[in-house]
Specification:
Shape: elongated
Oligomer: single chain
Number of strands: 0
Structural class: mainly alpha
Radius of gyration: 16 Å
Order of helices and strands: HHH
Helix content: 55-70%
């Protein structure tokens, strides 16, 4: 394992942004479960399980996909 040379540039990575969004959503779900469920109820029943799967797959694909030059610090 190797530390990132310039960790401040890590915000450019899509996987970091997706992780922040997922964390914000889970924090909202924990702090206001009734409000979160009202929003989830707007989705069709077949799509509700797919939301978590889609966020997970998006974060994985963003992390596994290389973007930018070899000088991005990782």
């Amino acid at each position: 394992m190797k530390l990132i040379a310039d960790w401040r540039r890590s915000w450019r990575w899509a996987s970091v942004r997706l992780a922040v969004v997922a964390g914000a959503l889970s924090g909202w779900a924990a702090s206001d479960p009734a409000g979160f469920m009202r929003v989830v109820d707007l989705l069709p029943p077949w799509a509700r399980p797919l939301v978590g799967i889609a966020v997970t797959l998006a974060a994985l694909s963003a992390r596994l996909t290389t973007k930018g030059s070899k000088f991005d610090g990782y």
